[in-house]
Amino acid sequence: MYINSIIIVDDNTDKMQLVKASGITGCCKGFLVFSPEIDLSMHIHILGICGTFMGGIAVLAKQAGHKVTGCDANVYPPMSTQLEAQGIVLVEGFSPDQIKLEPDVFVIGNVVSRGNPLMEEILNRGLPYISGPQWLAENVLRDKWVLAVAGTHGKTTTSAMLAWALECGGLNPGFLVGGVPQNFGVSARLTDSPFFVVEADEYDTAFFDKRSKFVHYRPRTAILNNLEFDHADIFQDLAAIETQFHHLVRTVPGNGLVLVNGFEESLKRVLARGCWTPVEQLSAVDGWEASEQSAEGQFAVSFKGEKQGDLKWPLLGAHNRHNALAAIGAARHAGVPAKVGIEALSQFVNVKRRMEMRGVVNNITVYDDFAHHPTAIETTLCGLRTKVGNARILAVLEPRSNTMKMGVMKDTLAASLAAADRVFCYGENLGWDVATALKPLGDKSVILNDLSKLVEAIAATAQPGDHILVMSNGGFGGIHEKLLKALGNQ
């Protein structure tokens, strides 16, 4: 069991009230009665544990002293290796036999739906269950100064930047990020600090709670990085997502802060529906602003026209400068001077799978990136083009997200890949014609449904000096290692 805090009332009170407590086994008038030997930890079993969010919850629960087990159907790095390093036991699949583990509560990820055999057994037996976001809110975020990072793009990177800025500012933050920040080496951390950074996803909470995850978090500092249409499997249109963002804004207190992208019309509409919190603009003259980046990677950071310092780092692109402004501004709200935040980001190492170099073979560089939305694909390619100049870029794409599989973004896909010299697309299990979507690219594109043949085609095309950018929000069948091996055999 887990106890956040206990209020012991005067012994003359007839009815004792315990605030923010659970799992109390006994009490007498005015006093909580327990033995120091009582184990206050709980056993939680996480369904869908290998997702980045649920895997992070597993890490936090383990660090809090709870017994953690979990199950999933698909296991791949970096989350699988992180869970193994934490000593968390994984069960393959969703067998109903897992109820024999007898956990105190089942924590349900949003990959689990009705019809899942384990979930059906839990429901039939009336066993206790809770969503991941609600468990996080009740057991970790309560009484914390929550700094939430929301937006269609850049949540993971900005969350990692913000956590690092707070760390360098001496605030020792806890965090839950949808990736592995390389400055920390883990996607989640629990500390005794009052500050906690959380990547605030707009995706739905669970099959039994269709609100966005971030509605549970109640941040004091909220970053709204951007807002485009995405998650077509659960949102009908952009207006539906704007409503969820408005619900998030409604939870930020009056003494909090909302940092918002000053150029996003969608976010302007969100704030126009009501905002009771001070607002600071990002990438705007009257708020936080970044200058153009020099060839050496340096740019100036200003706030309301006053220069705060110069930031020099290896990250590329206007999107990363925007992310930096959000992190510096949010850290400043928590008490970290902008100068300290700027110095911290000069030492920032990007999150795994964000333009991560996986290897160089025969002077051919292979990168891994999480990009899976046309806007993110275009931004990532433009950033790499700035870095490599006229060198050839071979873009390798797996349209894996639910939105991409539905074909909602297919009409903008070709344009997003325009900066690449060659495009290789893995077209398996898609409900739309990839060839038609990529036809504007002409003979630059190759579409294959067999992963082995795709690897062979890329390796046969690659030349010394090329840069191969692999983009997927999944494991992509271990294509990076297979590709490096194939290049080595050329």
Write the layout of secondary structure elements.
Layout: E1 27-28, E2 31-32, E3 43-47, H1 52-63, E4 67-72, H2 79-85, E5 89-92, E6 105-108, H3 117-125, E7 129-131, H4 132-141, E8 145-150, H5 155-168, E9 174-176, E10 188-189, E11 195-199, E12 204-206, E13 209-212, E14 221-224, H6 238-250, E15 257-261, H7 265-272, E16 279-282, E17 288-290, E18 298-303, E19 306-312, H8 318-333, H9 338-345, E20 356-361, E21 364-369, H10 374-388, E22 393-397, H11 402-406, H12 410-416, E23 422-426, H13 434-437, E24 445-448, H14 451-461, E25 467-471, H15 479-488
Parallel strand pairs: 3-4, 3-6, 4-5, 6-7, 8-11, 8-14, 9-11, 14-15, 15-16, 21-25, 22-23, 22-25, 23-24
Antiparallel strand pairs: 1-2, 9-10, 12-13, 17-18, 18-19, 20-21
Protein architecture, described:
This protein is an alpha/beta fold and 490 residues long. It has 3 domains: 43-133, NAD(P)-binding Rossmann-like Domain (Rossmann fold, 3-Layer(aba) Sandwich), CATH 3.40.50.720; 143-345, UDP-N-acetylmuramoyl-L-alanine:D-glutamate ligase, CATH 3.40.1190; 356-488, Protein-Tyrosine Phosphatase, Chain A (Alpha-Beta Complex), CATH 3.90.190.20. It contains 15 helices and 25 strands. Strands 10-9-11-8-14-15-16 form a 7-stranded mixed β-sheet, with helices on both faces. Helix 2 links the parallel strand 4 (67-72) and strand 5. Helix 5 packs across helix 9 and helix 8 (318-333) packs across helix 9 (338-345). 45% of the residues are buried. Residues 149-331 form the Mur ligase central domain.
